[in-house]
Amino acid sequence: MTVTGQWSQHPATPGASPRPVARVQALEDLRQKMHQFVVQELGPLLYDQRLSEAEIRKQVEEQLHRAMAQERLALGSTERQALVQSVFDDILGYGPIDRLLRDPNVSEIMVNGPERVFIERDGKIALTDVRFVDEMHLRRIIDKIVSQVGRRVDEATPMVDARLPDGSRVNVIVHPLAIGGPFLTIRRFRAEPFTAQDLVGMATMTDQVARFTELCVRGRLNVVVSGGTGTGKTTLLNVLSAFIPTDERIVTIEDAKELQLQQPHVLCLEARPPNIEGRGEIRIRDLVRNSLRMRPDRIVVGEARGAEALDMLQAMNTGHDGSLTTVHSNAPRDTLSRIETMALMAGMDLPVKVIREQMASALDLIVHLSRLRDGTRRVTHISEVMGMEGDVIVLQDLYLYDYSMGIDATGHFLGELKSTGIRPGFSERLANYGVNLDHSLFQGEQLSHRTGMRR
Question: What DSSP character marks residue 193?
């Protein structure tokens, strides 16, 4: 096991000089041996729910020092510390990606097989020096993650959505669907949810728009947050949900729990996949129907992606005003097309015009997010659903992102969300709830080159 003259391209610690490949391999062999030793010695104690994390850590540390005392490989203090931490991460955490999960600036972790781990930081994707030992090592970490929420992943169920204890969203896909995998994707969420002012500070929206959306939620408008993958729909939905008054009963419905509502009266429902026999599946649609019997003031669906869209529309049309959801789409007009398509998936054999009339009656506001080329996430459209004209749903843009302001020397967009100067048609309805839209929300610098009315 000697490779004289070759050097590791990935030192164990950032800023460290490269080490000979033979030395790196020896340390890796030692790490695996220590890991196996600790697991064999402690066995069931590692999963004993009666022991606190501190007690388990103490037991692991004792066994680690005992194992290291039996080894002849001379270790420096830095190597020893890194080795102990690595084994800790494997046994008590999530292996090599543990340090990425501890980094608050990492918003996404993408594991493309055991040897390629990417992260997203500040909206940009970069390759890291993080590696798993082999495919089995990665599978152990995956199994640990999904088992914590009662899920499983294997050849019979090669795709799974799960979550970490901190609420981070997890997606896994394994053999035979993943060629070169397994593939693991983790969408991070902050321990403390973003506030509207946080989004204003990041230029996702303006202070004027933050005040406007708060009044719309308080006034019980039905709001759809739309956008492409990774545009921040769930984050914005969290922010909008925070505007719901604390004296209302809220039911949240999600595939995997991600929303972090802070109100005292929140009931969280989570869909369930089928068991190993293909039975026991509880879909989002089933939960939406059940939620109507739970006396909710508001229903918040984490994401509408199928036939549940029809049930959501019916809920909005039967007294559950102020409901919120997200939809994948490229523009507000596409959002309506997506909802229409999803409603047709319900198999009710309804005419398209009937579905559009339901949509025009149920939906009040579409808030659309885009991810720009500089990696920033911006609200680019806020559109009012005006109603039907013939067979077409009419949208009216209230705020639009001004791309004409250009890009600075570093490639960042200088534009911002601006009012079209149009006062929404639901102003009177909001006034009936005691919510008045001040004229200042639609004044200031406006977009003059577009009327905002679209079919």
Answer: P
Instruction: Compute the CA torsion angle 223, 227, 232, 233 (nearest 10 deg).
Output: 30
- What is the DSSP secondary-structure string of 70-86? T--S---HHHHHHHHHH
Task: Give the separation between CA 10 and CA 18, rounded to whole angstroms.
Answer: 7
- Tell me how far apart the alpha carbons of residues 340 and 356 are, in angstroms, rounded to a whole number: 7
Q: Where are the alpha helices (DSSP H) in 102-251?
A: 135-147, 196-201, 207-218, 233-241
In whole angstroms, what is the distance from residue 401 CA to residue 332 CA? 13
Alpha carbon 334 to chain centroid, angstroms: 21
Question: Which residues have CB under 8 Å from 112's CB, separation 6+?
Answer: 118, 180, 181, 183
**If DSSP codes are grouped into helix, strand and coil, which group holds residue 318?**
coil
Integer angstrom CA distances of residue 447 from 301, 339, 348, 443: 33, 29, 42, 10
Question: What angle do the packed helices 53-69 and 21-42 form, to 10 degrees?
Answer: 120
Can you list the domains of the chain with their CATH numbers? 1-92 (no CATH), 94-190 (3.30.450.370), 196-454 (3.40.50.300)
Cα separation, 196 vs 398, in Å, equals: 19
What span, in angstroms and rounded, lies between the C-alpha atoms of 281 and 290?
A: 14
Assess contact for 300 and 325: CB atoms under 8 A: yes
Whether 221 and 430 have beta carbons less than 8 Å apart is answered as yes
- Cβ atoms of 162 and 145 closer than 8 Å: yes
The answer to whether residues 403 and 365 touch, using CB atoms and an 8 Å cutoff, is no
* Residue-by-residue pLDDT tens, the chain, 455 positions: 333 333 333 444 444 445 566 777 777 777 777 777 777 777 677 666 677 777 877 887 787 777 777 776 677 777 777 777 777 777 777 888 988 998 888 989 999 999 999 999 877 899 998 888 788 889 888 988 888 777 888 888 899 888 888 878 899 999 999 998 899 999 887 777 889 999 999 889 999 999 999 999 999 999 999 999 889 899 999 999 999 999 999 999 998 788 888 899 999 999 888 877 778 889 999 999 999 899 999 999 989 988 999 999 988 988 888 999 999 999 999 999 999 999 999 888 889 999 999 999 999 999 999 999 888 899 999 999 999 999 999 999 999 999 888 888 888 888 889 999 999 999 988 998 889 998 889 876 665 544 455 65
Rounded distance between C-alpha atoms, residue 25 and residue 8, angstroms: 9
Write the secondary structure of 214-263 as one string of H (helix), E (strand) and C (coil): HHHHHCCCCEEEEECCCCCHHHHHHHHHCCCCCCCCEEEEECCCCCCCCC
Exposed/middle/buried for residue 281 (C-beta within 10 Å: 0-12, 13-18, 19+): exposed
Distance CA 35, CA 48 (A): 18
